[in-house]
Glutamate synthase (NADPH) small subunit
Amino acid sequence: MSKRQMLQFVSVAKEMPLKRDAESRAHDFNEIYAEYAGEKAAEQAARCSQCGVPYCQSHCPLHNNIPDWLRLTAEGRLQEAYEISQATNTFPEICGRICPQDRLCEGNCVIEQSGHGTVTIGAVEKYITDTAWDEGWVQPIAPAEERPESVGIIGAGPGGLAAADVLRRQGLQVTVYDRHDRAGGLLTYGIPGFKLEKDVVMRRVQQLEQGGVEFVLNCNVGEDISFDAIRGKHDAVLIATGVYKSRGLQAPGVGVPGIVRAIDYLTASNRVGFGDSVPEFESGELNAQGKRVVVIGGGDTAMDCVRTAIRQGAETVKCLYRRDRANMPGSQREVQNAEEEGVEFVWLSAPKGFAGDPVESVMVQKMRLGPPDATGRQTPEVIEGADYVEPADLVIAALGFEPEDLPTLWGETALEVTRWGTIKADFRSHETSLPGVFAVGDIVRGASLVVWAIRDGREAADSILAYLAQPAQVAAE
Ligand SMILES: Cc1cc2nc3c(=O)[nH]c(=O)nc-3n(C[C@H](O)[C@H](O)[C@H](O)COP(=O)(O)OP(=O)(O)OC[C@H]3O[C@@H](n4cnc5c(N)ncnc54)[C@H](O)[C@@H]3O)c2cc1C
Ligand code: SF4
């Protein structure tokens, strides 16, 4: 591959990898972006202006050394690019696929700010790491020495797995407990395959298993084993359980068949993708095929539901959101993808009630944006007399997630939580109110992002190593 000069953004236009056309991608759950060819990755990486103060890096939660790995890619030194990329990120090929780059690195790239179109950082990151896997550059986990200390990690999502990776590479004995039958957390059962193909996740799980991380699956902590027992078995414990309590719809007529929770719907769809037998899918309860689907919500979960429904062969898919397009929390890129695939967004609208048992329709009330509230966001107000009826056979509620009440569920009242129910943990060390117990990811931050869970997991692993290096504390356990 030829060595390219940097700062090509003036003469070379931004180019994303090819996106499959909407018609072909709406019938399967495969990812929608192709991989760059090597020359194209180098060409796009060479657009970077090698900023002295790289805003891409400072806005990356992992502080990825983006300018350096872009330069190495442009110079055809891909293995070195990979080494630098993986030094700060446990799962770069996953972040390359699903980070909202438009809000993080790419949104803050100076070339984007100056109107030339961002460097396509995420697509290059994905290309580098996928190539590393293909070429055998990804190092297996092989600790130089085994250490006796053991760590129990509750939750096999990105936070728990990132910590497991760091700890196991240091030779600690690591056991990851999860209530699901597969590891990966929301990477496996939340995020659909068209954003993140499942073999990408399973390859990482396998790497951890082959490196000696023990997975105890189908194990719901608090039911199948007590939290206390886990603390008794391990020298340190990491809580990485995510947030799973769905915010419910508050309107007359809810609670009938045909109104379902987003997490149940997406989990069923992902299970079907794995080839599992899913009775609720086969019965039609969690299957959009041939149905008029209404999804309620404006976040990334809602985007994943509408696009899943399209792929299942829904007759129509509408998304109701009470604010407008500019004020929705979900990624604009995903809205565009959804629209291309045939989803209709009904902005400034909210459910007032539901009719039928099973559900037959949604009474929709129209909204306008009123004055800003204390947080500065404009408050949606109802427009009286503008209600209408929207026929629906399947309503999917995607209104966000809250933490489960872990202190009660686990009978551990000394585990302190915030007023939102998230676990109280030091934001640097990730230590909780219980000695030797750490917490990371969504269960601390509330519903957040994969990249933040990875950062937390890596930081907490370092804190656990430091904690275990203090013999007095380990002995006290
Ligand atoms: C539909 C959807 C789409 C998303 N899309 C994106 C995206 O595109 N980009 C992005 O960056 N983020 C996205 N997110 C957010 C992202 O998935 C989360 O922020 C991230 O997965 C949090 O990681 P975590 O490790 O804290 O928890 P999780 O990934 O939630 O993993 C927690 C794990 O803990 C297990 N667990 C919980 N309680 C127990 C218990 N008592 N005993 C045993 N195991 C337990 C769960 O089974 C789960 O496997 C999305 C979220 C959803 C719901
Ligand atoms: S902000 Fe953009 S141009 Fe500057 S170093 Fe980062 S990717 Fe390159």
